[in-house]
Amino acid sequence: MKATAIRSGSLRQAIRIRDFNLTIDEPADKGGEDSGPSPQEMLAASLAACTAITMEMYAKRKHWDVGDVEVACDYTPAERGCPTRFNLVMRFPDSLSDEQVERLRVIAAKCPVHRTLEGEVMFDERVERVSLAR
Q: Is 0.85 surpassed by the pTM of this model?
């Protein structure tokens, strides 16, 4: 998986992922142009979307009609002495049984983004110098 960010404004980034183009920016009060979600908001969105998709894929395999699943993610970045906190709220139709809801809750924690954030993360970084085309 690969994403590429290229500056396209003061802080605005043009993001390329496969054949998709996204805009990531910071709010005006942080020096950005507010032309797209912030990187932190995209992290919360990634977790919410991955959680919902993982539960929906599981429900589909079980032939459960889960209707419209909604996952909300509030995210508080780490600060000195406090860990990063993700608060996930999963909303299901009240027609699901308690057993189905519990199983979906357990499955939610198995989504790839959740596992990545929960696990050990390593970074390999390198710098490449390039000529600026003018």
A: yes
Half-sphere exposure of 98 (CA within 13 A, CB side): 0
Of the candidate CATH numbers 3.40.47.10, 3.40.50.1110, 3.30.300.20, 3.30.360.10, the domain formed by 38-118 belongs to 3.30.300.20
What is the DSSP code string of the chain?
A: ---EEEE-SSS-EEEEETTEEEEE---GGGTS---S--HHHHHHHHHHHHHHHHHHHHHHHTT----S-EEEEEEE--BTTB--EEEEEEE--TTS-HHHHHHHHHHHTTSHHHHHHHS-----------PPP-
Other beta carbons within 10 Å of 89: 10
pLDDT in tens, 61-103: 999 999 889 999 998 988 888 899 999 999 999 999 999 999 9
- The torsion defined by the Cα of 94, 97, 98 and 99, in degrees rounded to 10, comes to -150
